[in-house]
Amino acid sequence: MQGLLDGKVAVITGAGSGVGRAAALLFAEHGAKVVCADIDLANAEATVAMVGDAARAIRCDVADPASVDAAVALAVAAFGRLDVMYNNAGITILPVPGVGLRKLVDAPADEMRRVQEVNINGVVHGCQSAIRQFAAQGGGGAIVNTASVAGLIGYGGVVYGATKGAVTSLTRALAIEVADQNVRVNSVCPAGMLTHYSGMDPDSPHADRIRDGMGRAHPLGRSIDPRDTAAAALFLASDLASNITGVNLPVDGGLSAGRKTGA
Ligand SMILES: NC(=O)c1ccc[n+]([C@@H]2O[C@H](COP(=O)([O-])OP(=O)(O)OC[C@H]3O[C@@H](n4cnc5c(N)ncnc54)[C@H](O)[C@@H]3O)[C@@H](O)[C@H]2O)c1
């Protein structure tokens, strides 16, 4: 099979779990060499063990620009170049047990600051680092960001949604800024997925029941799997999408398209 990323080198942040791990496996299956960057090195290494020789792990806190630069430098040192930067790492503000999602007026400042640092600044740092490397290689390259359906419609926590709205906005504006360097910038916007990030265990005995409940909110009736989001990222990273930039692609079973009416 001809891979969609044959000969390409990708850095994936948040590759130790969920969407990032699914993307590392899928990108490698499609011929890419991947650097798995995660704040949790043991989990990044576990992803690398699943991928094999085509992957390397590095501890990376995307909130720290030097840490992101180091992940890009590893891609160049290990595999010779960078073609795809997948800024996927993100965190949420978890519901408080017995209270649920806190309202904006009750949101603690330190929690708000950290979610902004990771979800907004982390993507900015990934874009900066990648654009510098793409320029050093003579131009070209693809950036994919993981935003959220919360960046497209009101959905869940306000501060989290604002960070993802920042990512969708950045995606459009940056796509225009770097188009003349033949760098493409797109994002994927998933609806809720059962991953560790929401404080849930995707392998728990109740996971399928929870997924069924999540899927009922979607016109297509199924919950979103991390592999669905990874597949959208693969397409946007690949040359199949060579004339697509500035797009925020929902991966949400139709949720953001509108509501069912009638009956
Ligand atoms: N799960 C959902 O419901 C959902 C919905 C929409 C969007 N998203 C987004 O998808 C992306 C991936 O989340 P996921 O669901 O796979 O969650 P996950 O928790 O399974 O994976 C996130 C990974 O990011 C890593 N990480 C956290 N902070 C980091 C940092 N500062 N630097 C580097 N790595 C860091 C974590 O260690 C983890 O391995 C996030 O951007 C998230 O906001 C998730």
Give a written overview of the molecule.
- It is built from seven helices and seven strands; from the N terminus they run βαβαβαβαβαβααβ.
- The chain starts with 8 loop residues before the first strand and ends in a 12-residue tail after the last strand.
- The longest helix has 28 residues, at 109-136.
- It has one domain (9-251): 3-Layer(aba) Sandwich (Rossmann fold), CATH 3.40.50.
- It has 263 residues and is of the alpha/beta class.
- It has helices at 18-29, 41-51, 65-79, 109-136, 158-177, 207-215, 226-237, and strands spanning 9-13, 33-38, 55-59, 84-87, 141-146, 183-190, 248-251.
- Strands 3-2-1-4-5-6-7 form a seven-stranded parallel sheet, with helices on both faces.
- It is globular, with a radius of gyration of 18 Å.
- Residues 13-14, 16-20, 38-40, 43, 60-63, 88-92, 118, 122, 146, 148, 190, 192-193, 195-198, 226 line the site of nicotinamide-adenine-dinucleotide.
